[in-house]
Amino acid sequence: MVRFENVGMRYGLGAEVLHDISFELPIGSFHFLSGASGAGKSSLLKLIYLAHRPSRGLITLFGQDVTIAGRRDLSLLRRRIGVVFQDFRLLSHLSVIENVALPLKVKGEPWEDIKVHAVELLNWVGLKDCIDASPLTLSGGQKQRVAIARAVISRPELLLADEPTGNVDDDIALRLLHLFEELNRLGTTILFATHNEGLMDRCPHPRLHLAHRSLSGPTLPQHGGTGAG
Amino acid sequence: MFWRRRDLALDADPVRHFLPWLMAMIVYLGGLSLAGMMSLSAAVERWDSGLQGTVTVQVPAARTRAPDGAVDKALAILRKTEGVVSARPIGGAETAALLEPWLGRDALGAGLPLPRLIDVRVETDPGPDLGALATALDGAVPGTVLDDHRKTLDRLIALVRSVELVALAIVLLVAIAAVATVVFITRTGLAIHGETIELLHLMGAMDGYVARQFQGQALELGLKGGTIGLVLTAATVLALGHFAGAVGAGLLPQLDFGPEQWLALAAVPVGVTVIAMITAHFTVIGALKRLP
Questions:
Q1: pLDDT at position B1 over 60
Q2: Cα A160 to Cα A156, B45, B282, distances in angstroms
């Protein structure tokens, strides 16, 4: 599903923030991406959700070499990837349901179809009473659930989470993580970036660890979980 | 209801309220220049057709001291010439009446020598050989001048054409101003909503999808500003037309527009709107190139 071979990345003319990264995420897997703040987790995710180009190396997404993909192809690839950000990135001038609907609207689907789907998803994340609310009135945990609903509404094959639990309490973080696990059981491949050791310890998924610009792993969890892979 | 809300909150930007008025001014200036151009070219046409087929023969004053023999000689030649429809001598009193507003009654009363004029209608296309006719007249009555008004008219038309060129330049400048305004508005919008645009981009929005949001804004601006500008233009043209009609001088450019001219004026806001939308499209597409 995702394959990196000797990938390096730099911003502008700066030093490499990622160095010789190689790994593979099989279809249907669930991986944590760990590492201290500033270790390059966000940069690595940006390469996967195609917000940044690698400065060297080979990245293959869904069997397609992204370095030679055209602009239109990149947009079509992005539609197969859902992203959840630490800071939610909800649009405050739109209602909750309009935010959730956005990825399908971008695809040009008719509102009637989108609405049914969006309501269903908001139900699933437990926010059916907030459909027409403004995101500004929601708590951090609620905002992140809206963001998750938005990330999955277009049924992405790959779901990336960039510290999605960074701005919420631990018990809410665990509930959010369970949502991701449920999606994984339904077949979505997941890469979950976090530096919350406690959270990772409670779930048996293999870890990719970033330190000193390089990647180690995947390492299997100590508790004998099998992971999915 | 849902789709009327754009993904980008462009309406909330601080300069929004002022923009339709800016577009209105652009449309108004463009419309007025166009109205001026159309009215001038209509005037030129009228002058041209009005003076077409008329020639004035001027018999010098020195020759007319004597009885009307010189005028009769000239008339005889004119009436013999093929292509001349009619030749009517203008009487001394009538000539004096024509000159009175310029010279005053006293000067004329003092026996100022006046040339005699002959109003001549000629066939057009093909007309008589005016060069040969002038030579013949000068031969018979030395000093006689034949004026086909061409020189005066040509100068007048040259003047009008240069005014028209200025008006055309204004129309072009107005178009450039419209483009510059939209580029500025769109760039500002792109800067203010950069994060949202990046988010849409990451969701897989095509460049055209983002561009359409700005095109929608340009369309709205064009419609609002265009309507205001067109109403102002129409009001100005009608008012000026009313005053020009009151003066009633045949030589003044008139503003009594027909349907074609009104249609041309209505095309100004449409043109400005189309220019605005195209400009917005290419500005956004160009700016999005920096996103991978």
A1: no
A2: 10, 73, 32
pLDDT at residue A224 in the model: 42
User: Is B13 near chain A, with CB under 8 Å?
Assistant: no
- Do B30 and B171 meet the contact criterion of CB atoms below 8 Å apart? yes
What is the reported pLDDT for B72? 81
What is the phi/psi pair of residue B104, to 5°?
85, 150
Measure the CA–CA gap between B162 and B5, rounded to whole angstroms.
Answer: 49
Report the SS3 class of residue A212: coil
Q: What is the DSSP letter of A94?
A: S
Contacts of B208 by beta carbon, 8 Å cutoff, 6+ apart: B285
pLDDT at residue B63, rounded to an integer: 55
Q: Which amino acid type is present at position A147?
A: A
Lowest mean pLDDT among A160-164, A172-176, B14-18, B132-136: B14-18
Residues of A in contact with B195 (CB under 8 A): 89
Beta bridge partners of B147: B56
Give the model confidence (pLDDT) of A59-73 as tens digits: 999 999 998 899 999
Distance from B10 to chain A by nearest Cα, in Å?
A: 10
Q: Is the dihedral of CA A154, A160, A166, A168 positive or negative?
A: positive
Q: Are strands B84-90 and B116-122 parallel, antiparallel or unpaired?
A: antiparallel
Give me the pLDDT at residue A193, please.
94
Q: How far apart, in whole angstroms, are the C-alpha atoms of residue A206 and residue B57?
A: 110
Question: Can you tell me the distance from the alpha carbon of A144 to that of B154, in angstroms, rounded to the nearest whole number?
Answer: 78
pLDDT, tens digit (0-9, with 9 covering 90-100), for A61-119: 999 999 889 999 999 999 999 999 989 999 998 999 999 999 999 999 998 899 999 99
On whether the CB atoms of residues A35 and A210 are closer than 8 A, the answer is yes
Report the mean per-residue pLDDT for chain B. 84
User: Hey, what amino acid is at A58?
Assistant: L
3-state secondary structure of B75: helix
pLDDT band at A228 (very low <50, low <70, confident <90, very high): very low
Are the beta carbons of A26 and A219 closer than 8 angstroms? no
Residues from A contacting B (CB-CB < 8 Å) are 49-53, 71-72, 74-79, 83, 89, 91, 93-94, 98, 101-103, 105-108, 111, 115, 154
Give the H or E element holding residue A115: helix A111-124
| Cα–Cα distances in angstroms (integers) from residue A104 to residues A126, A180, B3, B205, B284, in the given order | 21, 20, 12, 10, 22
What per-residue confidence (pLDDT) applies to A134? Answer: 95
Residue A21 corresponds to which amino acid?
A: I
Q: Which amino acid is at B220?
A: E
Examine the pLDDT at B205 and tell me if it is beyond 50: yes
